[in-house]
Amino acid sequence: MTTTPISADRTTAVAARATELSKIYGQGETQVVALDRVSVGFRQAELTAIMGPSGSGKSTLMHCVAGLDTFSSGSVRIGDTELGSLKDKQLTKLRRDKIGFIFQAFNLLPTLTALENITLPMDIAGRKPDKQWLDTVIQMVGLSGRLGHRPSQLSGGQQQRVAVARALAARPEIIFGDEPTGNLDSRSGAEVLGFLRNSVRELGQTVVMVTHDPVAAAYADRVVFLADGRIVDELYGPTADSVLDRMKRFDTKGRTS
Fold it and tell me: What domains sit in the chain, N to C, each tagged with a CATH number?
């Protein structure tokens, strides 16, 4: 394994951390170890991409750290909060108040306008949006002229912009994206990735995204590589070529060559 050294001037503040995290499905001969004692931190104001071959555990890792899935053993913290100690209602509140989500399928409500979709999580929580922040987010993702449109009146790229704005609008501590550009063409995907990168650089947001695309990973500050449910490498300041070169070290079964 080759790991790029962490430079001394990088922030040490961590938005989320997994420690000795394991996720096991089934028992006996049918047992599958999706995560095998993974320890990783995601620093504040940084965009991290998680990559690996199919079945490597990358989506499982994100879902466990984001509180969307349970884990078998180990620890997950969002800020100072230990997820394993939370009851269902507490976990729901934490996801609502501290975590933003961007999914490949957009997950917009078809009967609501773009603006109503953006503010929906806050409406459900009974919180009023910070108008100045909301305006900043909407302007950043270029939706000012589309706020009254419903999802069916928007292109795929515009719908994903709405999803990005929805994730940012509540000012969460961390945003998780599961293949956020997977359903987009290359131009729309580049726009969405640019918005995510700008949210980190200009707004101080923390973003963690799962992707299989080296071009998408090149927008990140750091790439974490998984294979066989373990972290096997990481790369800072990635380019599409350097990510592709690292990925070539994995065979089709996810093992390092």
Answer: 14-247 (3.40.50.300)
